[in-house]
Amino acid sequence: MGKIVQVKESGGIVGAVEYTLAHPRDSKQRGIRHLASNVFIFKDSSLTEILLTKRNLDMNRGGKINVCIGGHNDWLDYSNKGEKSIETALRELKEEVFYNNTLPPELDNLQFISAFPKNLRANDLEIVSLYTGIYSGPFYKNPFEVSDIFFETIPNVKTDIIKNPEKYVKSAELYLDHLCFFMQTTTKI
Question: Which of these, 144, 141, 140, lies nearest to 56 by C-alpha position?
Fold first, then answer.
């Protein structure tokens, strides 16, 4: 694992931090606040179905379902600066669901919806930027990261997270809550 972007509690960039320091293996050890970016992909303009991915069994949280696609903002040593959140969102889309392909033009203009501190675990302190996009496929899953890709309605996902939380990454409900709040308070996506 390389370096990611460390930030202050307020979100201001501090500099580079090693991934292993930001995310200590010991879940009781406090991590270092850092940036992450995630994208919800809607199947169409009805905004009723979102893209879900199931993590490859060999990955961290293997076999768990993600409600969005994302990852950490990388520190770019060659320019001595951190990746912008939108750059991370686009890179993660390409890495996970457009493997060995270019991103389709429909995803060139992702919409920023929210940034918030994620404090679900002491060793996973992030400031997360969320984006949305609309695209129905095709997708090209990265076999090293993703074992399955499928669309599901938001109500079905919310119900399933409550009934079967062990199937999902720990942040799934939190991210979905932020998406639903945004959708209730705005009409533009």
Answer: 144
